[in-house]
Amino acid sequence: MKNFAALLVIACLAILVLLFVTNPELLSKIWLYIIGFIGYVAVLVEKGYQKLAAVFTSNKEKPKPPVEIQQPASEPSTPVVMEKTAEISKLEQKIKDLEVKLQGAKSGGETALGKCTLTVLRYLDDGETTLGLIFLRNKFFAYTLEDAHKEVKVEKHTRIPAGVYPIDFNKNVTKLTEKYRNLYGNWFDFHLEIKQIPNFQNVYIHVGNTHENTDGCILIADGVSAGTSKSLQYSRNAYERFYKTVSALLKSNEPVNIQILNEDWFEKSKLSSL
Hints:
- The protein has helices at residues 2-22, 24-57, 86-104, 175-184, 235-251, 265-268, and strands spanning 118-125, 129-136, 139-147, 163-170, 191-194, 203-206, 218-221, 223-226, 230-233, 256-261.
- By secondary structure, it is an alpha+beta fold.
- The protein has an 8-stranded mixed barrel.
- The protein is elongated, with a radius of gyration of 31 Å.
């Protein structure tokens, strides 16, 4: 029996040697597995040591409660494109219709639609935050968020008045300009400014999530939450897409303008049938 066992061991060793000679790459693979196994054992030993240390020190020091880490609003842990409130659900259905209506809108005066490069349709003002939709050449592009309307302007807490305005680069290099250049790299040059606004200046379209991120500017994003707390999600992606598109138009010497309409645009623009 002993001789048989010895012969079996020798046969196994011979087979292994033969495998390594004919398949040298097999040795490197097995070596990697061995290293991985050793690393796994080391982790187990370390965890065991920590548990033993905790047992012996439990009487001396009470463990501190774990610190709860909150996800930033711009990167939610669960993708939520839109919060399905009744109002937002209706709005989703209207967006596709709006694209068609904007193409053929023939209303006159200040409420003429479909004539500007960009169109912002405000649809909700809760006294603190304004939500809206932005269209690029009459195609839905993203969601917007601004400060609320105020009869008397409150500095850095008031949205700009409705109207038609030109958009161009603000070529003054400020701390905010440098911050955006550091964040976004070579595709960001200067801020896109909404110009010629009565009683307002340095109004940009930029990144943000809530009314706390805007001082009268327009925030842009791919997602919106219209619950108790109004906010935007996925702002960076929408902003990069927006900036690259609009800056390309400006650099090709094409004038860019924006039309902003208040919540009553449904009636005034003859799109109340929506």
